[in-house]
Each structure stands twice: as structure tokens, then as C-alpha cells.
Amino acid sequence: MTISSQILAFTLIASLCIMQSSGFSIEEATIDGLQLAFKQNQLTSRQLVEFYIRQIHKLNPLLRGVIEVNPDALTLADKADQDRRNKVPGSSVGLHGIPILLKDNIATKDKLNTTAGSLALLGSIVPRDAGVAAKLRKAGAIILGKASLSEWANFRSYGAPSGFCARSGQGKASSNFPNQEFLCCKSLQNPYVLSADPCGSSSGSGISVAANMAAVSLGTETDGSILCPSSANSVVGIKPTVGLTSRAGVIPISPRQDTVGPMCRTVADAVYVLDAIAGFDRNDPATKAGAKYIPRGGYKQFLKPDGLKGKRLGIVRDPFFTSYSGFDHHFQTLRQKGAVLIDNLRITNLGESYSDENLALVTEFKPALNAYLKELIASPVRSLADVIAFNNKFSKQASIEKIKEYGQGIFEEAESIKGFDASYKAALQNLTKISRDGFEKLMRKNKLDALVTPDSSASSILAIGGHPGIVVPAGYDKEGLPFGICFGGLRGSEPKLIEIAYSFEQATNIRRPPSFQA
């Protein structure tokens, strides 16, 4: 039996066990479906957590989407079930009793590690839950574990591939896959086409929800790290306006561009998670300005099947769609649902931001990381210089060629920078100008509600201005690899983007479970 056949068989058996015992199938279930099953006594949170733990045990040795499972997950599930039996207010709605995986750069004050996928932070102790983790607990969500990621959010080396993670291979070989080697520092696998790039850096978050190893997940994005893995793993990803969700307690790259958002199987699930995590956090000053964008009543109200009606959508064919031939039928769907497409638009300064964005991010990284490390209660490393030294020592001891090959060029470059000098300030001014005179001007001049692009091709445009974007599954290529469609807008435009994304999803229903093709 092939590995793909084994995986499908194991998944089917697990699903059948749940269906036979309760009459309800957990696989691909939405939050609404899970809450209804709780209400009708077809399912408990304990059964749900047990299902995901079995899925992780069976699939994770191959996919490596999960770094750690919370040892207290079942205890938390029992508490959620008890709250539901006792009719505790809020225990029958939203995320209460729903298991969620957090990307491993999001701090949790529990028995889980927070390491950004690096062995350098293994055993470190955080002072408190990250702001978003605290909000999830308040909503009653069960922290199921930590999702793998491209190590250090893909900001360690220019040469490392997406999904490369020192901690992702720490688990021992599973008896289900006796011929597989699971050594330290292997890359994560795309559940649709195992040989394909799962994209990063929130690779594990996308892989895990796609493969039904969790109900929902959180990722983080500085530039493309939610949008790209969501597209590549056929899930919905929301990259919020910077400051809409707290970054406190999140291992940083850039306070100017970092954001935290949901990665889920449906738009509705992603919106439920966004409602839970958006809002002010005294530990992240950016959320004071971001909170003004949150609509009264939250984001759930914008889940409208007719949300495309009257929306003005911009299409920049060159360069975004020059390599994609399968989107014209999606454009037709958008029109049929009432959207007005403004086609053949141009953004004159596309591609001009790369060097300035890179300079700004590398400059901002060291002080941001050092501040995070210094606040830890305990840690093997206290500065970027310590991390570099740890990695150098580890690569020599481990004798793992890939670690030596990939190196840590970004780290070394960031460490060499002495401060926010004139070149950094000039780069920031140029990035502001590029965003203002490019994407923002295009949106306002054409009175657009969203820019439509394939995959995550507009991630840099959205990143440098702190703008939001939503990726929705849009299809599968001839090899079976997923691709998404992205709706991006101006800061605070999440309500419009949710209407657009939800309406598109409901009109197309493209997502399907992974096929685990070798």
C-alpha cells in the first residue's frame, strides 16, 4: 500500500469511528456544524479533541504541520463540556470548546513551548499569553497545540525553502510509516501534493487545518506568510489590517508590518476567529489605532451570500494574471453575482518596493527581537547575537548539511546594522510613497472596494501599507496543487473584503479535502 493510500485509509477509519458513535462526521466540519453537534449531544469537545489528536498522530509524521500538542488539551475539553452542561453564558456559541492550533511564534503561558520553530528557544518561558492567545481563551477556545512554521517566520536565511523548520522533525518515526525517516530539520509537506511547496511562513497552520488536524488555526504575516500558505493549502486566510489584532507576545520581525490572522477551511470560520482576536491590547500600542476599524457588532454580520452585489473590483492583469489562464471564469462569476469589474488597470510602481522593504525589515528585526527575548522569564538566548551563536554551534554539532547550506544570512545582516540610520529613514519614506502613489491611488481613483489578484501575488503591496487581504480557494492545477484568489483592500476594509470573499466562496464551493498525492 502506498503512503497516500495509507493516509486515506487511516483518515477514513477515524472518520467512520466518529460517525458510527455519534452520527456526526467531524472531518471538514465548520464551527457552526460543531456547535450544532454539541447542542444536539452528537459530539463533545473531548471527542473532538481526541479526533484531532488521532489525526495528528497518523498524519503529522508525514506532513509535519504540528510541532507540539498541548498536554492539557483534553482537560480543557472536559472543562468546555462541563461549561456547556452547566449552561455557562457563552458556552454554546462561537469558539467555545473549539480546538485551535497557534503558529509557534505566538506565546502561550502553559506547558507548550514558543520557539518560532527554532531549537534556540526550546525551553524558554514566556511572561504571559500573547494578546491573541488570551482573547482566544476568553472566547472559550481550546489551545490544541503549536503549528510548525518556516523557521523564524522565514526570516533566518535567504536560501532556506518555505517550510524548513528545525523543530518540525523532532518527533520519532510513526509505526504507521515505518519506512519514513523523521530527522531534525526536514521541511513540511503540502497535503495535496506531497512534493509541492506548502509555502510559508505559516505553513503548519495551513497544512493542519487543510488536513483536518485542527478545526481552525492562527498564522502571522509580515509579507505573504498567511496569504501564500492559505493559497497553497486550499484554505481561507485573513491577513488583517496591521494593528487590528495584537502582536504582543508574538516573536517579531517588524512591528510596522507584522499582523496575526486566522487560517481556516471556510470564510465563516475565519471570521469567527477574527471576531475573537481583534481589538485593543494594552501591550500593543498599534491596537489603539487599529480598534477604530472594528465595526459595532463585529465581523460576523458581513457574512452575506449577496456580498458581491455592487462591489467595484479592480483587475491588474499585467503582471498578476500573465501566468494564470484559469481566472476568467472566476471573473464571470464575480460579475454574475453583481460585482462591477474594472479591468486592465495598471499600478505604475510595481516591483519598486523590494529593496526598500527588505532594508526596512532587516533594520527593524534586531531591536524588535531583542526586546522580545529580554522580556522572557527564562531563555537559552537573550539577543539576536546569542541566537546566531547558538545556530553556529548547533550546526557544527549536528553535522546536518542543510543547516550549513542554508546558513543565517538575514540574521547576520540584521546583527550588523547599528540603528535606524538615514538609509532606513529614506527607505521608509520611499515605501510610504510607493504605497500612496501606487495601490492606494489606484483604489481611490477608481473607487474600488478590492483589488483581485491570484494567490499571494499582491502580498508586498498589502504588506508595506499595512493593508488587509483575504485568500479564498480558487481551484487546483493539473497536478492537483491548490491555488487561491486574493481580495485586498485599504486599511480597515475588512467588512467589504469579508462580504466579497464569502459571496465568492458560497457561489463557487471550490475547496475539497486533500488528496495526499505523492
TrEMBL record:
This is Amidase domain-containing protein. PANTHER family: AMIDASE, AMIDASE DOMAIN-CONTAINING PROTEIN. Residues 48-456 form the Amidase domain. It comes from the Eukaryota. InterPro entries: Amidase_dom, AS_sf. It comes from Turnera subulata. Pfam families: Amidase (PF01425). Keywords: Signal.
